[in-house]
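Narrative of activities, Objective 1.

The group set out to show that a structural description can be obtained from nothing but a protein's sequence at a throughput compatible with the screening campaign. Below is one input-output pair from the validation batch, recorded exactly as produced.
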Amino acid sequence: MRAETIQKIKTELLQLRKEAEKALEAFATKESGYANDFTSTFPDYGKENDENAQEVEQYSTNLATEQILEKNLRDIDTALKKIDQGTYGICKYCHKKIDEKRLLARPFSSSCIKCKNKLQKNQ
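Output recorded for this entry:
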């Protein structure tokens, strides 16, 4: 892969990282000492029954969103580390190059389309 393409992807990964952290900070606090670890805060809408139900529903949504965003952060960090190590763009299953179009569409992909499809069929 060309150096310009890798630099473009790295820039996008850094931007995606900022966006994910900003989204997490809207409803969670960052745990000190742990990279990419946030804790959702329980919302407080009031003391009425309908407000309590809203709090529980929002907290459940926040927990699910937190898990997805934290996973994205881990995947982004892994991709950035691979760029720095010179191993970016190699499928973790078959060890072949991941198509550039896939990486441009989803820069933190760790598998090629063929392996990803195979994994999804086995689930």
